[in-house]
Amino acid sequence: MRNSKGRLHIVAFGAHAGDADFTMAHVLTKYAAQGHRATIVHVTLGEAGHPRMSRQDYAEQRKVEIRDSAAVYGADVRYLPYPDGELPATPESELAVCDLVRELKPDIVLTHWVGSFHQDHILTHHLVMRGVLLARLEKVTRALPPHAVRSVYFAENWEDPQDFVPEVYIDITDAFDRWIEGASKHALFRGEVSTFPYQDYYKALARARGAESGCRYAAAFMRTREIFKRALPSFP
Question: Cβ(120)–Cβ(87) under 8 Å?
Answer without folding.
Answer: yes
